[in-house]
Amino acid sequence: MSEYDYDLFVIGAGSGGVRASRIAAGYGARVAVCEEDRVGGTCVIRGCVPKKLMVYAAHFHEDFEDAAGFGWEVGQAEFDWNRLIAAKDHEIDRLNGVYKNILASAGVELIEQRGELVDAHTVQLGDRQVTADKILIAVGGWPTKPPVPGAELAITSTEAFHLDSLPPRVVVYGGGYIAVEFAGIFNGLGSEVTQVYRGPQVLRGFDRDVREVLGQELIKKGIHLCLDTNIIGIEECPEGTRVHLSGNDSIDCDLVMFATGRAPKIDGLGLENAGVETDAGGAIVVDEFSRTSVDNIYAVGDVTNRINLTPVALMEGHAFARTVFGNDPVPVDHASVPSAVFSQPPVATVGLTEHDARDQLGEIDVYRSTFRPLKHTLSGRDEQTMMKLIVERQTQRVVGCHIVGLDAAEMLQGVAIAIKMGATKSQFDAVIGIHPTAAEELVTMRNKVEC
After folding, report:
1. Structural domain range at position 204
2. What is the pLDDT at residue 44?
3. I need a surface site. Which of 24, 209, 210, 391 has the fewest CB within 10 A?
4. Residue 205 zone, left/alpha/beta (φ > 0; ψ -120 to 50; rest)
5. Residues 290 and 380 in one domain
6. Which residues contact 397 (CB under 8 A, 6 or more apart)?
7. What pTM value is reported for the model?
8. What pLDDT is recorded for position 239?
């Protein structure tokens, strides 16, 4: 009989925690997971899923406009914010139930309470304590706000999913993927949107061409981009909310949304009680097997600030369970992880940017194509697709692929497999394209970009 109540206790029932729990239980472990909010975590409850549903909704206004070019007469379109939010909430409720059923079917005990570490083997749950041989921390991250006077008047992405009505005028502060996605959502649904970002172009860290092309497309969509600009203060005014910008400018709006970053959600978690090490940004420090500085405590997902993507958390959670309970040590490979930004138009990317490839590999070849997708030859919309391949010159291995345009994410998943397998440019070239598609451009680019 074990001296502990559980073989594994998981704090946090998001993507990583749920995956780790059920896989560990499948190996015969006695597992419990606690969650202070709803089961499903950031992605399902207040992130990827509801956000993409709203992106779909925001795109319909262009679809209605484009239909005329294909012979359709569309009547007066009206948008109902409350109907969208109700439909979105219904789907999130369904998914919350699905995740609970996943845990129950796997034999994992769900405890719907906040958990805090008492020591390396003990977790406080309200007025009781439980013990476990192994503890996994999978509490994720949370939006942060910069120390701007009046910041309490602004919302974050978490609150954006539950607004009572669609604000007529919105200021989005930030230049990352969450910022560009919500700028597109509000703009597409009918708000007048100004996006303020301190940098010279949106999507810092992405490939330069991706950033430039997306920035141009956002402007075409009607989003006002204020680059190299900071918000220095927010105040209430008779016209709604006044946003003061660096350079002595100001904007009046009805809603300010901060999308300026996220941080590991470790406050009050009791890490210090168990001696769990964190870095300067509050992320839990782990090794390649997700083990913390305490031998029996592990961490996966956004709380470790490795790559903050849901599929990465899933992979880390699965690898943890295989390693610890399946006796099959599996380090997580964080190289060449594909990702997408559901901006309008969307972005998808895998591997190295041009800048990083030059820095890490030296001589490279770059292939790039920018074109008007077939759909818009009849719709008349001025929207460009950009595709780019980065190739290591010596080996001719394709080390990066970047796409801006319709269906970017759907196209990139297959390309990511090829890049992960080490495919060369000649192997890309040997593949026959599917015509007529935008995707065929990925296997027909032959002319190098002069750099």
Report:
1. 151-260
2. 93
3. 209
4. left
5. no
6. 391, 422, 423, 424, 425
7. 0.96
8. 85
Does 28 score more than 90 pLDDT?
yes
Q: How far is CA 65 from CA 61, 88, 137, 217, in A?
A: 6, 24, 48, 17
Q: Work out the angle at residue 30's Cα, subtended by the Cα atoms of residues 25 and 34, and round it to the nearest 5 degrees.
A: 90
Q: Strands, E, within 79-191: which ranges?
A: 109-111, 115-119, 122-125, 128-137, 141-143, 169-173
Q: What is the pLDDT of residue 451?
A: 67
Q: Examine residue 436 and say whether the peptide bond preceding it is cis (omega within 30 degrees of 0).
A: yes
Helix then strand count (H, E) for the chain reads 13, 21
Which residue from 316, 315, 312 is spatially nearest to 299, judged by alpha carbons? 316
Distance CA 74, CA 104 (A): 47
Determine, yes or no, domain membership for 335: no
Question: Which of 114, 132, 119 is CA-nearest to residue 324?
Answer: 132
338 part of a folded domain:
no
In 3D, which of 151, 143, 144 has the Cα closest to residue 231? Answer: 151
CATH at residue 26: 3.50.50.60
Which listed residue (59, 61, 90, 435) is catalytic?
Answer: 435
Cβ neighbors of 127 (< 8 A, separation 6 or more) are: none
Q: What is the pLDDT of residues 83-121, one digit of tens each?
A: 999 999 999 999 999 999 999 999 999 999 999 999 999
Active site residue 162: no
Stretch 25-43: mean pLDDT: 96
